Amino acid sequence: MSNSETLSQPSSEFATAPRAGLWRRLAALFYDWLILIALWMLAMALGLGVVALLNSAGLISFAGYADPAAYVAAHKIWFQLYSLALFIGFYLYFWCKGGQTLGMRSWRILLVQQNGKPVSLKQAAIRASTALFGLGNLWLLIRWGKGLALQDQLSKTQMIVLTKQQSSALNLYTNAR
Predict the structure, then answer these.
(1) Which has the closest alpha carbon to 90: 81, 101, 77, 79?
(2) Hey, which of 29, 38, 48, 109 has its CA 20 to 30 A from 151?
(3) Is the CB of residue 154 less than 8 Å from the CB of residue 127?
(4) Contact 21/110 with Cβ under 8 angstroms?
(5) Which sign, positive or negative, has the C-alpha torsion 129, 135, 137, 139?
(6) pLDDT tens digit string along 32-90?
């Protein structure tokens, strides 16, 4: 069986792989946050552009506000929801697409179900909503030796460490799709 066939139907190889520890998870999370900060800045610039466009079209008014930023500050709940959707969307996309965010890929971590199969959208959504912005990983300190963070247990997923060969094969397969 070729590598691409193996990776398209993950086997027990992934179910029995070693689980990622706290420091590896935090390193991947830090890497992802750097990417998310850049995406967030781009999304906020786009959001401000939309607000300015709505103002010039007469659909909203900056009257009573010092500048567009003051308008946004007064209506920040929409930008907060927009930001939350961006962050959750980032993780859902990458977890469902190939089981790895860019940070996870760098640290050779793969997110799979506990039986080794790819995660579903429902599992990814549960995981994203229970991760508590990464604080759920601290559960690893409480349940030392189990290798499952809070979000892993609640979503029935696990983060495994790939060998260099598995990571290379997975990245070739994911990039080819």
Answers:
(1) 101
(2) 38
(3) yes
(4) no
(5) negative
(6) 999 999 999 999 999 889 988 999 999 999 888 888 888 888 989 999 999 999 999 99
